[in-house]
Write a structure and sequence with these properties.
This protein has 180 residues and is α+β, with helices and mostly antiparallel strands. 22% of the residues lie in helices and 32% in strands. It has one domain. It has four helices and seven strands, in the order ββαβββββααα. The protein has a five-stranded mixed β-sheet with strand order 2-3-4-5-6. A two-stranded antiparallel ribbon has the order 1-7. A hairpin with a 6-residue loop joins β4 and β5. The chain is flat, with a radius of gyration of 22 Å.
Length: 180
């Protein structure tokens, strides 16, 4: 499946001084994004990005993605608008680079140091797709449960929700109190 929003840059075209790109989706791409990700309407998707080269062959993509979408309220089913303004900071390396993290063997223990930056993502070829990067960051910012202001569940629906005392965590807390 091809990406609904694609803007490619050849890695060889990124100079040592860096490269700036402003990208935005056209109306056909906005409609394709809405269909692909089940969003009622994507009105705008744009990003301002700076690509720089770091030591060791690392390519860094910094910037912002801006979007305007309309979703359906999970309670009232009315349209809900959401404005997205999300930062982007991605590090990438070409496959085969010494900075590329080796794949872990299946079942092997993986050590992660939370104080260190994440390892760079590994590119599959000589092309970098800025549209895909912008789309990923846009999708991470989309509210998965949009709710219109003041929208509440009807009383009969609220009465059918499980009691907090029926949850597995409440049962574990009771057991803990009983056993001391």
């Amino acid at each position: 499946m091809s990406a609904p929003f694609s803007r490619t840059v050849e890695l060889a075209a990124i100079p040592a001084t860096g490269l700036e790109r402003s990208i935005s989706a056209d109306s056909a791409e906005l409609a394709a994004l809405a269909r692909a990700y089940d969003i009622a309407e994507v009105r705008k998707l744009a990003a301002d990005l700076t690509l720089t080269r770091e030591t060791g062959g690392v390519i860094r993509v910094n910037g912002r993605v801006i979007a305007e979408i309309v979703q359906t309220c999970v309670v009232s089913l009315v349209p809900v608008e959401q404005a997205i303004d999300e930062s982007i900071d991605v590090r990438l390396v070409e496959a085969g680079s010494p900075r590329a993290e080796a794949s872990a063997r299946p079942g092997a223990e993986v050590m992660i140091n939370p104080d260190e930056p994440d390892p760079p993502d590994v590119l599959s070829g000589p092309i970098l797709d800025l549209g895909v990067i912008a789309t990923e960051h846009f999708l991470l910012a989309v509210d998965p449960y949009p709710r219109a202001p003041g929208a509440e569940l009807p009383a009969e629906a609220a009465d059918s929700l499980p009691d907090a005392g029926d949850s597995p965590f409440a049962a574990l807390a009771r057991l803990r109190r009983e056993t001391g």
